[in-house]
Design brief:
- By secondary structure, the chain is mainly α.
- The chain contains four helices and no strands.
- The model has no long low-confidence stretch (mean pLDDT 84).
- Keywords: Membrane, Transmembrane, Transmembrane helix.
């Protein structure tokens, strides 16, 4: 009944599974944004420590951007699975690199 009111459809799976996956993705995005906001506040409190900012950016590219790409690209564009996988993997690698720089990078803390 609720699905009829919202006019939702899912192909290839049950509608409740599709809604649960989207809900979990949105929760993941919200949590990673919340953590990134806390890291950005820490960056401002520590007089601009670039490593804290690098950690925030890395977290965003590791979690938030890939989730948005997984949801947004098939919805908005006709990009295939391979192209989407390359973009998602590139974002995750950029995030991991940024986090590695924040943890092991050279320079003063």
């Amino acid at each position: 009944m609720v699905w009829t009111l919202l006019q939702l459809r899912a192909t290839g799976t049950d509608l409740s599974v599709a809604v649960a996956v989207i809900g979990l993705s949105l929760l993941s995005i919200a949590l990673s944004l919340g953590i990134a906001v806390q890291l950005a506040r820490g960056y401002r409190r520590t007089a601009g420590n670039a490593r804290v900012l690098g950690l925030a950016v890395g977290l965003l590219f590791l979690t938030t951007v890939p989730e948005l790409l997984r949801i947004g690209l098939p919805t908005v564009t006709g990009l295939g699975v391979v192209g989407r996988s390359v973009l998602v993997s590139g974002s995750e690698l950029l995030g991991l690199g940024s986090i590695l720089w924040a943890v092991y990078g050279s320079g003063s803390q």
